[in-house]
């Protein structure tokens, strides 16, 4: 399907609208109207261009945001659920588990130890020789060859 640049630009705008998590969820028909297409045309063309339906894209975007928030470890599962626009913790948890393979709380626990605090590197990420050299008094080595 050959797509005119204006139509592609409008579909990209629709994709951006789907990615946002507004307080009042916008329907697919609303977004189709926003980009001046019928709902049927919009769904068909969106899927042809982006490889998934608008609804699938919206769900994936919400789950990506949920994974990001859970990995940060600063929000509870309930807070993440509400933040990404779900009103039911049970439906969010079931969908997250089905798509991710772990419950939201298990995902958060697993990633909490892997996420770095900006500016701080964990000790085990450095080779042992660097830690040994760092503990030497200043001037202990006269040259780099001696190290």
Automatic annotation (TrEMBL):
> SUPFAM superfamilies per the record?
Homeodomain-like
Q: Is this entry keyworded Transcription? A: yes
Q: Name one Pfam family in it.
A: HTH_18
Which controlled-vocabulary keywords does the entry list? DNA-binding, Transcription, Transcription regulation
According to the entry, every stretch annotated as the HTH araC/xylS-type domain falls at: 12-110
- Coiled coil residues, start to end: none
**Tree of life domain:** Bacteria
Please name the PANTHER family in this protein's record. Answer: HTH-TYPE DNA-BINDING TRANSCRIPTIONAL ACTIVATOR EUTR, HTH-TYPE TRANSCRIPTIONAL ACTIVATOR RHAS-RELATED
**Identification of the protein by name:** AraC family transcriptional regulator
The organism encoding this protein is Nannocystis pusilla
Q: What is the lineage of its organism?
A: Bacteria, Pseudomonadati, Myxococcota, Polyangia, Nannocystales
């Amino acid at each position: 399907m050959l797509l005119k640049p204006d139509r592609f630009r409008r579909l990209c705008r629709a994709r951006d609208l789907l990615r946002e998590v507004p307080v009042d969820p916008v329907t697919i028909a609303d977004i189709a109207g926003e980009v001046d297409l019928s709902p049927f045309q919009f769904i068909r063309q969106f899927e042809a261009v982006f490889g998934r339906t608008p609804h699938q894209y919206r769900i994936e975007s919400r789950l990506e945001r949920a994974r990001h928030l859970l990995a940060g470890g600063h929000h509870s599962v309930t807070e993440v659920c509400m933040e990404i626009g779900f009103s039911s913790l049970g439906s969010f948890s079931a969908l997250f588990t089905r798509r991710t393979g772990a419950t939201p709380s298990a995902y958060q626990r697993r990633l909490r130890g892997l996420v770095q605090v900006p500016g701080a590197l964990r000790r085990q990420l450095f080779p042992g020789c660097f830690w040994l050299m760092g503990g030497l008094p200043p001037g202990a080595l006269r040259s780099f060859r001696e190290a």
